[in-house]
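sry for the spam today, last one i promise. struct tokens for design, 312 residues
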């Protein structure tokens, strides 16, 4: 069953990071001390916040982004790219005497990756920056968040979303060990298995242990939980405590860098449209699979029509 378009698409607000991804592809990821010959270098717009914004826009939502860019050449390129994707960027602030965020990404031919992030201007996004954009929270239906900007800023966004009754989706990446109070006060938390293990304290080796981790995250405050397990699909736990498993879609993985960003954006969109958590997870699995089957973060984000074709 495809996810048809509603009469009014949700308005999505993203608070998060904007990076330039410098991507090196190689046969395999280097071991410590190993030098490899790569297949080339690509400059690709990325950052988890910007990725989520582009993903939501391509799926058909009206999207606004709150973030920061540096006063370098990357900043100009990233700003223009977001505008070209239809993302509203009035909330993207310039940061003098600061570089834009950069992610150094190694991608092996299997599609697996390793990432080193230099936050740059993303580290300068303050709670005050978010509070000054309060009108965006008034008009949004969905808030998408990640952890590539300061934690105080994320917590402020969660508080403002709660005050405005926004549907709030948190992708808790990069992974953190200690969960601050209030971080999981969200409608949906959607970690991968590594992030879920750190947040819950439960090692995830099977779908059974993933279900136990989901229960723990629910107890810690998340109203609904989705844990992505790569080629083992997704486990979910809804607000009533009901749980289940969504099978993955079979695709050839080329670059998994932004699959989680596509997943989070798709979950928020479908939940705001009134879909169940299970149906939203299936739609999001398709979006994530499509993103993983293509090169690049934002260039690999699928359209709604493409996701619907995979669903059928």
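last one done:
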């Amino acid at each position: 069953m495809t996810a048809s378009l509603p009469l009014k698409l949700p308005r999505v607000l993203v608070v998060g990071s904007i990076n330039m991804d410098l991507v090196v592809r190689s046969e395999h990821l280097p071991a410590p001390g190993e030098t490899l010959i790569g297949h080339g270098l690509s400059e690709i717009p990325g950052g988890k916040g910007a990725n989520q914004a582009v993903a939501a826009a391509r799926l058909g939502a009206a999207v606004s982004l709150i973030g920061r860019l540096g006063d370098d050449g990357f900043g100009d390129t990233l700003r223009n790219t977001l505008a070209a994707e239809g993302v509203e960027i009035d909330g993207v602030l310039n940061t003098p005497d600061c570089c834009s965020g950069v992610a150094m990404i190694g991608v092996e031919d299997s599609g697996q990756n390793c990432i080193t992030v230099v936050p740059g201007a993303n580290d300068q996004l303050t709670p005050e920056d978010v509070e000054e954009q309060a009108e965006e929270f008034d008009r949004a239906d969905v808030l998408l968040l990640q952890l590539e900007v300061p934690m105080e800023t994320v917590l402020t966004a969660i508080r403002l979303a709660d005050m405005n009754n926004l549907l709030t989706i948190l992708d808790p990446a990069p992974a953190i060990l200690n969960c601050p109070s209030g971080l999981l006060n969200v409608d949906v938390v959607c970690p991968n298995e590594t992030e879920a293990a750190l947040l819950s304290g439960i090692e995830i080796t099977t779908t059974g242990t993933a279900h136990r981790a989901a229960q723990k995250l629910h107890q810690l405050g998340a109203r609904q939980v989705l844990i992505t397990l790569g080629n083992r699909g997704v486990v979910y736990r809804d607000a009533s405590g009901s749980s289940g498993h969504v099978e993955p879609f079979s695709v050839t993985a080329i670059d998994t860098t932004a699959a989680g960003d596509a997943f989070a954006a798709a979950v928020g969109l479908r939940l705001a449209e009134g879909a169940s958590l299970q149906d939203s997870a299936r739609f999001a699995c398709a979006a994530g699979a499509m993103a993983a089957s293509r090169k690049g973060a934002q260039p690999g984000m699928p359209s709604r029509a493409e996701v619907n074709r995979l669903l059928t």
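DSSP finds ten helices and 13 strands in the chain. ok im logging off now
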